Each structure stands twice: as C-alpha cells, then as structure tokens.
Amino acid sequence: MYTFKRYIIVSTIALAVVMLSVIPVTSLPDAGGIFLDKMVHTVMYAGLTLAFCFDLTRNSNRRLTVKQFVGVFLFGVIFGLIIELLQSVIPYRSADFQDCLANAIGAFIGSCTGKYIFKPNKKVSPQ
Global pTM? Predict the structure, then answer.
C-alpha cells in the first residue's frame, strides 16, 4: 500500500494517458494539424515523467540520482512504446512512429525538468 501511495500522482496520470490513448476518437479539431497532435503527445509525456520525478523526490532529502533520472526517462519511452503497440491492435486507433518520437521527447523534457526543479525536502533530523 505504501508504494501505491508513493506513486499515486504518476499512477493517476498514467491511467489518464492510457484512457486518452485508447478511447475512440470521432472528431478532433484540425486547428494545428499534425503539429498540434505531436505537441499534445510531447506535453502528455513531459507531464507524466515530471509527475514521476515529483513522486520520487517529494519524501526524499536529495535530488534525483542519475540512475533514477535514466529510469524515469526510460519509463516514459517504454510506456509510450507500449501505448503505441496497444493502439496498433485497436481497430479504431493506429500506431505512429512520429508519436513515439514525440513521446520520447516529452519524456526527456519532463525528466530533465524534474531533475532540476524538484529540490530535496530539507527535514530537520531529530538529535
């Protein structure tokens, strides 16, 4: 139970990304065309990995380690690949390599941002 509570924010966002990725899309506004679609992918995965960084550091007394940073980035990339593979078998959705690339760019942006904006929780240790 502790682990789930620790990752509640990223779990909620991941569930939202899955839901948005598999629901039928009947009509989308064509305001920005392919550019808008890729920006949405980038922002979603930046938010997902940023939330993961927050969940990892909120009860910690240090910034993300290199190992955690790489893990968060790879989580975003692999999660995006799994979603695209899932979309390839859903009749009303389709997989797209450019979506994978946008997801990876978003995961990188979110990981980098999270590494540098979330500061250690400076708790005073009892003496």
Answer: 0.84
